[in-house]
Specification:
Layout lengths: L7 H12 L5 H8 L3 H13 L19 E9 L7 H9 L4 E6 L6 E7 L2 H11 L6 E8 L15
Helix pairs in contact: 1-2, 2-3
Length: 157
């Protein structure tokens, strides 16, 4: 990868892609006020420089039957460092886990988990998460209402 400074046009391209990853090159060029050829070159340069991590389709969880979102705080046993990589590998393989962060404070990790319903969440917690190596305790908070959910990043001016 190589270093590039983002200019106003690069930021327009990235901003438009965050809102519409399926935009055609023509649509993207229009949004960035560029010719399609210039836009295509800039788009590829931004990809190659690592500004664009990936393109994805975000599904409507409730529409496919995943009606429960929970945030799970995980505490690890003392000395969990010996089991850390195994824990991370197993956690990464769990389809219910949408996001996982190592955090500071009273807990070691925070997970965002989706489940079909509360009994499915309970089974996931008791039969899967609590059985992972090194897990000492979990505390869950069930989401009552989604206020904002985005992966769009604020772009510097």
């Amino acid at each position: 990868m190589y270093e590039i400074d983002l200019d106003r046009i690069d930021r327009r391209i990235l901003d438009h892609l965050q809102g519409n990853a399926r935009a055609s090159n023509l649509e993207l060029a229009e949004a960035a006020s560029l010719s399609p050829a210039q836009c295509h070159r800039r788009h590829r340069r931004l990809e190659e420089a690592g500004f664009i991590a990936r393109y994805e389709t975000r599904l409507n969880a409730a529409r496919i039957g995943l009606t429960v979102v929970a945030f799970i705080h995980v505490s690890m046993e003392r000395g969990h460092v010996r089991e850390l990589q195994k824990f991370k590998d197993l956690l990464a393989s769990l389809v219910e886990v949408q996001e996982c962060y190592a955090v500071t404070g009273d807990f070691d990790y925070v997970l965002k988990v989706v489940a079909r319903d509360l009994p499915a969440l309970s089974r996931f917690l008791m039969d899967t998460l609590m059985r992972l190596p090194g897990v000492a305790a979990v505390r869950s908070s069930v989401c009552m209402e989604e206020i904002k959910c985005t992966s769009a990043l604020p772009l510097p001016a």
